[in-house]
């Protein structure tokens, strides 16, 4: 399967790319700096230099792919507007390139999903990452209003560790209760790739936790 990965040099995107190659897929990675991509030079990886906030760059990366996995993250910038700056251009690029499947990495606590966070995590997120989570929420709604076959992943707090595959997938809508805990970045990467290649969770927002 031909996949496009945004954020392939990041801690989750890199694990998505590694797992995709190990599973026999081919990947196009949109990156700002090819030198930061360990797989640069791998014949199975097509590297496109550009910015995910540019519709033209995003289109160049997604054209010919069967699915796009967006694993972009703000790093330690808790005031980042990366999510809203990229959501529209990514959707525009996918429409132009006629690519339907989108798996979008967000976070539990984005926008109105804070109602499903544990009280402790909701309070901490509001205090430290309020602007970031608001920005992610706006982007999530942009994705959810689109006509793409989207899935929005909502992991709880990140932890380190190996892939277990033993994590919970909880629909945001249609279920109740607050959710806490942690999930490894490796398991988040496992979900993103599985969703993109299986066709599961289309037009659903999914909470991920251990």
Segments where pLDDT lies below 50 for 5+ residues? Answer: none
Please work out how many helical segments DSSP would assign: 5
Helix content: 25-40%
CATH topology descriptor:
Rossmann fold
Order of helices and strands: EHEEHEHEHEEEEHE
Shape: globular
Q: Which CATH first-tier class would you pick?
A: Alpha Beta
- Average pLDDT, rounded to a whole number, is 96
| Largest beta-sheet details | 8 strands, mixed
Number of domains: 1
Calculate Rg over CA atoms: 16 Å
At the fourth level of CATH, the homologous superfamily is: NAD(P)-binding Rossmann-like Domain
Strand content: 15-25%
Termini Cα gap: 29 Å
Q: How would you describe this structure to a colleague?
A:
The protein is of the alpha/beta class and 210 residues long. It has one domain (2-209): Rossmann fold (3-Layer(aba) Sandwich). The protein contains five helices and ten strands; from the N terminus they run βαββαβαβαββββαβ. Strand 5 (101-105), helix 4 and strand 6 form a beta-alpha-beta unit. It is globular. The two termini are 29 Å apart.
Summarize the structure.
By secondary structure, this protein is of the alpha/beta class.
Kindly list the characteristics that best describe this protein.
210 residues, Rossmann fold, alpha/beta, 10 strands, 35% helix, two-stranded parallel ribbon
């Amino acid at each position: 399967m031909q996949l496009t990965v945004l954020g392939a040099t990041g801690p989750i995107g890199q694990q998505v790319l590694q797992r995709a190659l190990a599973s026999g897929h081919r990947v196009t990675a949109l990156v700002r700096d090819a030198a930061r991509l360990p797989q640069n030079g791998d014949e199975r990886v097509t590297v496109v230099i550009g910015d995910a906030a540019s519709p033209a760059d995003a289109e160049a990366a997604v054209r010919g792919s069967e699915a796009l996995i967006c694993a972009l993250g703000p790093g330690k910038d808790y005031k980042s507007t990366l999510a809203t700056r990229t959501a529209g251009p990514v959707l525009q690029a996918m429409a132009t390139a006629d690519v339907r499947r989108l798996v979008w990495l967000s976070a539990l606590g984005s926008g109105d999903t804070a109602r499903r966070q544990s009280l402790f995590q909701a309070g901490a997120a509001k205090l430290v990452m309020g602007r970031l989570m608001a920005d992610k929420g706006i982007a999530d709604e942009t994705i959810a209003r689109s006509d793409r076959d989207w899935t929005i992943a909502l992991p709880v707090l990140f932890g380190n560790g190996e892939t277990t595959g033993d994590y919970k997938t909880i629909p945001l809508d249609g279920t109740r209760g607050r959710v806490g805990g942690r999930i490894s970045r490796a398991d988040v990467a496992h979900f993103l790739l599985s969703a993109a290649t299986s066709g599961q969770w289309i037009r659903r927002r999914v909470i991920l936790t251990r």
